[in-house]
Structure prediction request, 269 residues.
Amino acid sequence: MKSQATPHFHNELGVPRIIVGVKEFMCIGAWPPNDHPHVFLDMGAATQIICPYCGTAYSFDPRLGERCDPPQCAYPAEPPSDPDDVTAVSQGGRETLSEDYVRGAVVAAFKAGEELEHALDCLKIRGFDAVRTYSPGDRDDRSASSPLPAITLIGGAIGFLGGFAMEAYANTVSYPLNVGGRPDFSWASFVPIALEIGMLAAVLTAIFGYCFAAPLFSYFEPIDETAAGRGAAHDGWIIAVDTHTANEMREVERLLNELGAQPVEEIFP
Prediction:
């Protein structure tokens, strides 16, 4: 088998994006003899690049190593010599793509909040639950629920029980004192301080829980770079639907277009 130091990738499948595990590689466009000049691409510090010949978009994911997703887009060092084998690989890749091509989302913008609410209802009926919304004003978010109240309650309960246990241990085991003949385990006197500790723990849990749930520690959001996403701060009612297969992505795009969303865009985090 020939040695091929630089990985080669092709887009015979016609997918919108290929995810690769290397930043330096060759794009050949399609299977020979329909390939274009083999172009050396170097992402450098970036995580995405577009082939100047065929327009294929590549994204970087270090977990893949020298492999790619979809795996059929990897060009072997010694390609099949039989054209029928090439056709079979290409057709097999298309079948795999409809089931396995993952890590995508569809972003769309509506001009009014009522249109967004109607779209949420339609998506819920179709079974799409991984939905996020971005809007310039308040809205009745009927499709979303937050775990923050339950987390805050749990944090407060842990703080209360921990404070109560600390007081009980200090007064009965660590440093017991006879105060006016009162028993060491005077639980009623422990409650006020334990309650204050519980409220402090609940507040801290709510603050940090909100930061993670928002999520405020995420410094990059692919939606911000879309034309639809840039309108969320002033006049756009934005919806983002996470998809896990190419079929899901196409179905969501078609539905949002039918509902009058403009624009409708694909993103691949």
Summary: The chain has a mean pLDDT of 80.
